[in-house]
Structure formats: C-alpha cells, structure tokens
Design a protein that fits this description.
4 strands, single chain, alpha+beta, 61 residues, four-stranded antiparallel beta sheet, 16% helix, 1 helix
Length: 61
C-alpha cells in the first residue's frame, strides 16, 4: 500500500491525533511484520494506523 503524504494531510493527521482517519490515496502506510496495524511517519513522529478503518491508533513522539 503506497500513497503520498502532503504537508497539509500530515498536519491534519497530527492535529486530530488518535482516532483521525488517514485519507485514502494520500498517506503511505508501511507494513509491520506479524502485526495487524500499519505505520506512517508524520513530522518525525511514527503514527500507528488500522488499515481496515484507516484510523490512527497511536502517535509515538
């Protein structure tokens, strides 16, 4: 699943934080082996995302 993240989308994702929905086709989600979640990096923060709902699960500082 490869998508591009614009700076506007990144800002929105972090502002809404946990529970935010990552926009389809704008956020690149990377696989985590043996884990149901995927991750992306926004503004040097790792964001864990549920790929089925595209909701943010956790933001790591």
């Amino acid at each position: 699943m490869r998508m591009h993240l614009s700076s506007a989308a990144a800002a929105l994702l972090l502002l809404a934080s946990v529970g935010a929905v990552a926009a389809q086709n704008t956020v690149e989600l990377h696989e985590v082996p043996n884990v149901k979640y995927r991750y992306t990096v926004v503004d040097n923060r790792t964001v864990l995302v549920d790929p089925s709902t595209r909701k943010t699960v956790k933001v790591y500082d």
